[in-house]
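Deliverable D4.2, example record:
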Amino acid sequence: MSQRKKALRKIVVALWMGNASGREILSGVCRCARETKAWQITLLVLPNGFSTALVNQILAEGADGIITSDAGNETIRMLADALTVPLVIIGPPADLPRARGGTVSFVGRDDLGIGRLGARYLLSIGRFNSYGFVQEIDKGEQSTSDRELGFARTLAAAGHVCQSLSAFAAPPDTSDTDRLHLWLKTLPKPAAIMCFYDPPATQVLEACRELGFAVPTQVSVLGVDNDEPICETATPPLSSLQPDHENMGYLAARQLQAILLNRKRLGRKIVLTHRIVERDTTRQMAPSANLVRRAKAFIADNATNGIDVQDVATALGVSRRLADLRFREVENSSIHEAIERRRLDVATQRLRQTAWPISRIAQACGYASPQAFRTAFAKRFKRSPRAYRQQAS
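Output generated by the structure prediction step:
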C-alpha cells in the first residue's frame, strides 16, 4: 500500500468554485484521475484571482502538475516564471515559452462558438426588433469578449446589429443600475438579449421587472453556464447556454497526463459540445425549441429500439430536413448524434450494472451488430466496452 501511495502524482487543481463552471471542470478532472488511478488531487479554491501568496502556496504543495482555469495573462506569466512543473490552463492561450523545464499548455473554451450558438438560437425562436449583449453590468473598462464577437458577427451575417451595453453612452455619474435601465429602454421591443454568463442575466431580469417589461414577450434573455441554482430561482427561470465544462476539465487532465508521461503534447483543444437549456425567459417564443423538446423526449424513449432520424421526423410530423435543422439550431448537434449518445448512455449503464455479454447489450441498445456497437463505443470513449466494464468495476 505504501508503494502505491509513493507512486501517486500530486496534482494541484486551482479553481474558483463560486459558479457551475468551476464545479463541472473539477468533475471532469476527477473523472480523468479515476481513470489514471495515479493521481492525488489537492483542490485549491481560488478567491477572485491569483496572488503571489497563492503561487507560493502552490509551490509549497510540492505539486507534480497543476491545472487551473481562466487565469489572466499576467497571472499566467507569474505562474510560468515561478513553476518548474507542467501547468495546464483552461482558457484563452497566451504566447508563452516553455517555462523552466515545465510546460505551459492550454485547453481552450470556444467563446466565439458560444456567442454564435447564442445568436443562432435567439434568431431561431422569433422575430425581434433588436438584439443586445451584456458582458457585465458594472461600467468599468470592458474589452469586447470573443463571446460578444461571435454573437455580433452571427447577427450581422443575418442582417442585424448587436447593441452592446458596454458601448452604451450614459450621462456622467449614472449608476450602474440606471445605466442598465436607460439601455433597456432604448432597445426596440421585442428585444433579445444574451449575457456573458448567468449572474448579469439575472440583473437584466430584475431591471425588466422594475421597468415593467414583460419577459419573454417584450424581452427575451439568455445566460451562459446553466448554473442551475441561479437559473431555476430566477424570476422567470432563466434560459442558459451550457458549455461542456466537464469535458474541458477532462481534456485538461488528459493533457497534463500526456505531458507527465512524456508523450506527444495533445495541443490546444477546443470544446464544441455546447447546448441550450431552455426555460421561461425564452420559452413562449420558441416553436423550434418546442419541436426539439419533443424530439429529445422521443429519442429518450425509443433510441434503444433501433430508430433513425426519419423515425424521429415522422413522430414530430415534420420533414427530416426541418427536424434536423431545428435540432442543430438549439442543440448544436444532429438528431443522429443525439440517438447515438442516448444508446451509448444506456449501454454504459448496462456495462456497469449487469453481467450481460457484449452481444446482448448491443442488441438491447438498438445496434445492428456487436461490431457496430463496439465501433460506436470506441469512437466516443476511446476504449472497448470490455475495457470500460473492467475499469468501472
